[in-house]
Amino acid sequence: MVTRPTPRSLTAKKGEATPKRPSANRRMAEAPPADKKEAAARNRARSQQIRAESRRGMMAGEEQYLMPKDKGQVRRLARNVVDSRINVATVLFFGLFAVLAFSTGIFPVVVRSMANGLLIFLILATLVDTYISTRKIRKLAAERLPKEKNGYRGLFFYVLMRGISIRRLRIPKPQVRVGQEI
After folding, report:
1. Domain locations in the chain?
2. 26-37: per-residue pLDDT in tens?
3. Calpha distance 15→25 (Å, rounded)
4. What is the DSSP string of 111-165?
């Protein structure tokens, strides 16, 4: 006896699996909401849980949760290099408060002029330090990641912004200690 393949137009028997319904009569994971208010509460709870998981992953530096500007091996190397050293850019952040305080009219002109000179010096020192760090990162990336082509664009500003931010407030959190060899 020869068996024929079933034609595509033939529907499956009731309760059996189909291509669009692989497990027949599958039970729902949870009961449907009773009203709109309960549905909204479930959606809020679900999205809050998703956001918490994403934040935890982003803080830990997990690649899938990072923002596009932070993704890639070159950016990870840049973060580690910036986090492993004390940057002039971090000093700039606190120096701006000193410049702001000493630039007010209650101080003599000489003190205000020195505060403005300090501001110019800090900005130039930050730019030079960031340029040196960027060159170091590019050199390390060329050695360690020769096949990596992404992550070089905007590296200077990425290093600058990572360096300016206070270490405790950096996102993703620093993975290396200050002074640790990269």
Report:
1. 36-65, 67-169
2. 666 778 888 888
3. 6
4. HHHHHHHHHHHHHHHHHHHHHHHHHHHHHHHHHH-TT--SS-TTHHHHHHHHHHS
